């Protein structure tokens, strides 16, 4: 593996942005849920408000796809991240659920420009042979930032609620200035359709993106609620979330490297099996030590799904098609992310907290069945 190829063309700047935005999201998503829960907001309302953030990302990607083709996204990424930081600062200063709803809409819509633009840049600047590893490093650094956010956020929150949100906003501002100063290529969305015959993995990639978004943000938005209702403290909640993120850090590079070597569909089978088993165990074992262990294992399985699916989705595509696929991938990811907290919170309300991951497991089983079928077909051919 050529290390220089992984970091050349200022890709290190994109990796740094991933770390900063991961740190911001690691603060914003868990602490907004905690903040609302401590103000006696219902689980369903929390799920809806957290989901609208991801729904706004989905709307943003559609807007980019339909209205912003042949336009350089860099200045819009800068403006979007700046507005997201303002929304982050506003959140703890208001107490009305309608204001929270609007604020999460603003943050999500504005962050969509970053998700589409930086992933486009990353894959345009990378060779086909290393796209899985490059995606893995991007996800790893996002996860590392997320871990920093989930660990430090609750600690700062217990001392100063507003202070924790200020730190999240500062991370977003830092990323905003990096995109203007270090990304030297134009980030354009191609208006022509993608030739999907050139990449039969696109639909699997989109299914994986939806499933990953659903699971990841059920964990981010509702796992804190699940833990607090199970009589764990805010700092213990942060530690459990951090173990999930650390698992992603540990597993992402090995699994994405394995996917580049043996086939990305096969590595996704491994991810799905690990994720299903660990999610079941999180709800079955009550001791905090077991929660930490299976959160770590879950992070290993779930964390690699995103970069492997992203690399699978752009496999063999022309460079001018990558931006459009990145936009579609982000749409499915954000749609799954929006659906996860709402549907999972409904199940928690309808049945009990221990069913928090029941729908997530069903989506993973569906993905696993499809992947097994694809791998069998490849063996037959």
Short overview:
With 381 residues, this protein is mainly alpha-helical. It is built from 14 helices and no strands.
Question: What's the structural blueprint in terms of helices and strands?
Answer:
Layout lengths: L2 H5 L3 H27 L5 H25 L6 H17 L6 H28 L6 H29 L1 H22 L19 H28 L4 H29 L1 H21 L3 H16 L1 H9 L5 H32 L7 H23 L1
Helix pairs in contact: 2-3, 2-6, 2-7, 2-8, 3-5, 3-8, 3-13, 4-5, 4-7, 5-13, 6-7, 6-9, 6-12, 8-9, 8-12, 8-13, 8-14, 9-10, 9-11, 10-11, 10-12, 10-14
Distance between the termini: 29 Å
Main pleated sheet: none
Number of strands: 0
Number of helices: 14
Low-confidence stretches: none
Q: What structural class do you assign from the helix and strand content?
A: mainly alpha
Form type: globular
Query: Helical content, roughly?
Result: over 70%
Question: What is the string of helix and strand elements?
Answer: HHHHHHHHHHHHHH
Average pLDDT, rounded to a whole number, is: 82
Query: Over the alpha carbons, how many angstroms does the gyration radius reach?
Result: 19 Å
Beta-strand fraction estimate: under 5%
Structure description:
- This protein has 381 residues and is mostly helical.
- 82% of the residues lie in helices and 0% in strands.
- It contains 14 helices and no strands.
- The model has no long low-confidence stretch (mean pLDDT 82).
């Amino acid at each position: 593996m050529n290390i220089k190829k992984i970091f050349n063309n200022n890709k290190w700047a994109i990796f740094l942005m991933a770390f900063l935005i991961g740190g911001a999201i690691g603060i914003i998503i868990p602490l907004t849920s905690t903040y609302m829960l401590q103000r006696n907001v219902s689980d369903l309302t929390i799920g809806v408000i957290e989901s609208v953030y991801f729904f706004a990302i989905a709307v943003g990607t559609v807007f980019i796809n339909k209205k912003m083709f042949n336009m350089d996204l860099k200045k819009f990424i800068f403006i979007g991240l700046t507005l997201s930081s303002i929304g982050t600062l506003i959140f703890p200063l208001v107490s009305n659920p309608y204001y929270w709803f609007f604020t999460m809409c603003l943050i999500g819509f504005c962050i969509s420009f970053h998700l589409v633009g930086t992933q486009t840049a990353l894959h345009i600047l990378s060779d086909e042979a290393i796209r899985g590893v490059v995606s893995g490093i991007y996800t790893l650094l996002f996860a590392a930032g997320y871990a920093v956010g989930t660990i430090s956020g609750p600690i700062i929150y217990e001392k100063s609620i507003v202070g924790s949100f200020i730190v999240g906003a500062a991370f977003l501002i830092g990323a905003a200035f990096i995109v203007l100063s270090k990304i030297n290529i134009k980030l354009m969305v191609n208006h022509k359709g993608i030739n999907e015959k050139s990449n039969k993995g696109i639909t699997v990639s989109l299914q994986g993106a939806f499933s990953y978004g659903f699971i990841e943000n059920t964990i981010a938005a509702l796992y804190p609620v699940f833990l607090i209702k199970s009589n764990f403290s805010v700092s213990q909640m942060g530690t459990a979330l951090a173990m999930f993120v650390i698992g992603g850090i540990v597993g992402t590079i090995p699994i994405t490297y394995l996917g580049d070597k043996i086939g990305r569909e096969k590595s996704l089978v491994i991810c799905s099996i690990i994720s299903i088993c660990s999610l079941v165990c999180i709800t079955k074992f009550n001791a905090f030590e077991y929660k930490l262990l299976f959160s770590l294992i879950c992070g290993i399985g779930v964390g690699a799904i995103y970069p492997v699916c992203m690399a699978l989705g752009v496999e063999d595509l022309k460079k001018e098609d990558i931006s459009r696929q990145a936009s579609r991938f982000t749409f499915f990811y954000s749609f799954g992310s929006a659906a996860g907290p709402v549907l999972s919170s409904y199940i928690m309300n309808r049945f009990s907290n221990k069913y928090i991951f029941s729908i997530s497991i069903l989506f993973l089983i569906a993905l696993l069945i499809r992947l097994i079928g694809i791998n069998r077909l490849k063996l037959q051919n």
